[in-house]
Design a protein that fits this description.
557 residues, alpha/beta, Methane Monooxygenase Hydroxylase, Chain G, domain 1, Flavocytochrome C3, Chain A, domain 1, 4-stranded antiparallel β-sheet, binds flavin-adenine dinucleotide
């Protein structure tokens, strides 16, 4: 009999027999995801290997990604008169609460500025100081210096725009929109037994649902790179767009690759509290606090000094927990950000989108306190990679938010994510330089088989399960955890898992069903990792083990 804690040992490969002939698409490099990680890698590879075909898959449109919504900016040592690598390294290590890999932190910090210069060359605009050619460097929580390059509060939009325009210049990049990657192809699909400890697992590409004609195509490549972003949609309140369902991490886990540090889900302290509720929650950038915004109670009292000497600019885990604790103590639905003392012209110039959004729901940031509440924002753990972005599966790489490179440890420093994605996209490209000519494209991969499945009759089963999943994760595996809550979450998840697998065996594949399966996997990985960590560290806080242990290890599943 199965117990809840091992239910993922049982994935059934029931869709694998050769029956219907579907499209087979071959490329030299297959990239899953068109955010900053995927497009940066595609551009670099396409420029260098003019004779190689690069296929980029994206499950909706090319421009829809977490990247597109990034507000605050990209952290990089820029003004060397005041800043240096050692300071950025120290801030990253400090936020990471003892779990960062020091060599990776140094790599990202030292290679970061070059990557930023590169995207500027491709056309990205970052704000400059008034009447000056110097960049206007912002500051965010946990940073000891002003080092955040930004484009108003639309940095991600500007970077995504630049990358799409640059990618469009290369005829050897083909972007397939509305293609949903379902599963990675390994020796398992050739009929071999593959378990997590099997040595030499290889990835030959993936099966993907063409959402426009409903067919499942076989995409084959010399190497595959997972750049599928985060999984914030596993929680009820999240700043992540609806595409962020952790598909890449779930796919790698199903393919028996290694995933680590999933307990460290980052809650951003300040999403806009909107009583009507919206998905995703609108972010009030940390840069607003860097600009002078102060966290307060409804009575206008500052409270952050009781939690950390850096007050409103303490690292995110501390601020999110402080807000959560104050809300629980006072029985309120939100806390507040006070910007009323800031000069309007400057505020609106820096944060036009935030200003407009607040006004649209009847809050004037210059006159009213802005109601804020923590929301799930970033997945610090993910697919385990080495310093070249290589996963535990051969011919498979990962970059961006879905990857766990060792940079973030137990808590990501603000604005280090866009930087990491560019640095690792570059490192994967550099590593592939010697590989792409050596690796083959397999010819013996069976098509996906959809035999025995019928179209879903009750979509409500899926939507309701997603709702339940989010409730479970938000109530039991949120900012504050405990053994009892984690156990309860695991038991509930097991039921959802069983019901969903039953549905999967009998229903034809739809993006909704696959997202539900992937979200259940992500929820399971978070809960299981959280159960393993018997201490409180960084973003993982449990009332049963409130102290830091001196022995630090990564949670590898
Ligand atoms: P994404 O940009 O999320 O792209 C993922 C891609 O994968 C998408 O194209 C998606 O369609 C595709 N995909 C996913 N699943 C599948 C599938 N099954 N099949 C096919 N395609 C798939 N970080 C910072 O450093 N600075 C900031 O200021 C900042 N602000 C943020 C503000 C908000 C509101 C949010 C949500 C995040 C912010 N972050 C910020 C985090 C940062 O934006 C993300 O971590 C980063 O953009 C992730 O980039 P990525 O390339 O890894 O993934
Ligand atoms: C923000 O603008 O507050 C988000 C920055 C980040 O997630 O790095």
């Amino acid at each position: 009999m199965l117990c809840a804690c091992c239910f993922y040992l049982t994935f059934a490969p029931h869709h694998l027999i050769l029956l219907r002939v579907m499209a087979q698409i071959k490329a030299d490099l297959l990239i899953l995801g068109s955010g900053i990680a995927g497009l940066t890698l595609a551009i670099k590879t396409a420029r260098h290997f003019k004779d190689k075909q690069i296929l980029v898959l994206t499950k909706t449109v090319e421009g829809e990604s977490n990247t597109r919504y990034a507000q605050g900016g990209v952290a990089a040592v820029w003004d060397t008169a005041t800043d240096n690598y050692e300071k950025h390294i120290a801030d990253t290590l400090d936020a990471g609460a003892g779990l960062c890999k020091a060599d990776v932190v140094r790599i990202v910090v030292e290679e970061g500025p070059e990557r930023v210069r590169e995207i500027i060359e491709w056309g990205a605009r970052f704000d400059k100081e008034k009447n000056s050619s110097d960049y206007d460097l912002a500051r965010e929580g946990g940073h000891s210096e002003h080092r955040i390059l930004h484009y108003k509060d639309l940095t991600g939009w500007e970077m995504q725009r630049t990358l799409m325009e640059e990618a469009a210049r290369y005829p050897n990049i083909r972007v397939l929109e509305h293609y949903f990657a379902l599963d990675l192809i390994t020796q398992h699909h050739l009929g071999r037994l593959v378990i997590r400890v099997t040595p030499g697992i290889e990835c030959y590409g993936c099966y993907a649902l063409n959402k426009q004609n409903g067919e499942i195509d076989t995409l084959l490549a010399r190497a595959t790179v997972v750049c599928t972003g985060g999984g914030g949609q596993v929680y009820k309140a999240t700043t992540n767009p609806v595409i962020a369902t952790g598909d890449g991490v779930a796919m790698v886990y199903r393919a028996k690759g290694r995933v680590e540090n999933m307990e460290f889900m980052q809650f951003h302290p300040t999403s806009l509290y909107n009583p009507v509720g919206e998905n995703p929650s609108f972010l009030i950038s940390e840069a607003v606090r860097g600009y002078g915004g102060i966290l307060k109670t409804a009575d206008g009292e500052e409270f952050m000094q009781h939690y950390d000497p850096r007050a409103s600019l303490a690292p995110r885990d501390i601020v999110a927990r402080a807000i959560d604790s104050e809300m629980k103590k006072r029985g309120t639905d939100c806390m507040y950000l006070d910007c009323r003392h800031l000069e309007k012209e400057g505020f609106v110039a820096h944060f036009p989108t935030i200003y407009e959004k607040c006004v649209s729901i009847g809050i004037d940031p210059m006159k009213d306190l802005i109601p804020v509440v923590p929301a799930c924002h970033y997945m610090c753990g993910g697919i385990m990679t080495d310093a070249n972005g290589q996963t535990s599966i051969e011919r498979l790489y990962a970059a961006g938010e879905c990857a766990s490179t060792g940079l973030h440890g137990a808590n990501r420093l603000a604005s280090n994510s866009l930087l990491e994605a560019m640095v690792f996209a570059h490192r994967i490209f550099a590593h592939l330089e010697d590989q792409l000519d050596v690796l083959d494209i397999r010819n013996d991969i069976p098509d996906w088989n959809a035999e025995g499945t019928t179209d879903p009759k009750e979509m409500v089963l899926i939507t309701q399960s997603v709702r339940e999943l989010k409730e479970i994760m938000s109530y039991y595996v949120g900012i504050v955890r405990s053994n009892v809550r984690l156990k309860r979450a695991m038991d509930r998840l097991f039921l959802l898992y069983q019901e969903t697998e039953e549905l999967y065996k009998t229903t034809s594949i739809s993006p909704q069903l696959m997202e539900l399966r992937n979200l259940i996997t992500i929820a399971y990985l978070i809960t299981r990792s959280a159960t393993h960590r018997r201490e409180s560290r960084g973003l993982h806080f449990t009332t049963d083990y409130p102290e830091l242990l001196s022995f630090v290890e990564h949670t590898v599943l």
